[in-house]
Specification:
Blueprint lengths: L1 E6 L7 H9 L7 E7 L2 H13 L3 E5 L5 H11 L4 E6 L3 E2 L3 H6 L7 E10 L6 H23 L9 E5 L13 H11 L3 E12 L5 H22 L6 H5 L12 H23 L8 H4 L8
Parallel strand pairs: 1-2, 1-4, 2-3, 6-8
Antiparallel strand pairs: 4-7, 5-8, 6-7
Helix pairs in contact: 7-9
Amino acid sequence: MISIIITSYKEPKTIGRAIESILSNNLPSDYEIFVTAPDKATLDVAEKYSELNPKIKLIQDEGKGKPAALNLAVSKSKGEILIFTDGDVFIDKDALFSLVTPFNNSHIGAVSGNPLSLNSRKTQLGFWAFVLTNIANERRTTALKLKKGFYCSGYLFAIRKNLFPKLPEELLSEDGFISNEVYKKHKLIGYSENAKVYIKYPTNFKDWIIQKKRSAGGYNQIKKLTGKEMRSFKKESFGAFSLFKYASNIKEISWLLNLFLARVYLWLLIYKDINFKKKSQKEIWKRVESTK
């Protein structure tokens, strides 16, 4: 049995599309879908789907953040395989089959999906999203071939339920923390390039900083919790010149230079935030409106 968990917050405009994209997949007979959200507006939309399909179950969480919502949903789930995604993204019609197939290998503990950008490449931020998602795909594909470790994408990934750890509620990057726990239990992480999940990325620089600060900063937080460095400015800078292969004209070259400067600025903000771990998850996890 598989349990599909959709975490959401104030996403009544997109939760329907998220649910429909899952239902468009060739699902096994023994599945369940959980939609968890703290707000009534999102759950009201999801309820229309649950009335038609009893396998869709609703959970009103307490609004303590995504880690707490995941802990609650997993505690109610019955599946041996857990699949996680969000209420503001949607998956490809063949994504779930591609995502669960690697579990035929008993050494696989989790499998990451492949995030793809919906933003136009003709804008600077859209081009950044195109570049960064392609880099992530290349790195996971290369790591898989070389049998090196990598981490799941929180937009879409699956894990064996017996490997799911209880998540600290203050976590900012639950996908990185879970990935680290899988490796600690001597299991492998797989990657399915065909398990595509489509994301709308920020369309203004303020939202871009908010989103990237909480993700990159979240990995810095995991380092404090586990002692393992998963992402750093030094690691990002290595091989930065290889990014220019994505540029097809002078404008895109200038956008790449701006991306490098933006990442420098981002890491300065992260390192400057010396009181990072003293803040609550709710204070740090700011909503990114332009991705909705």
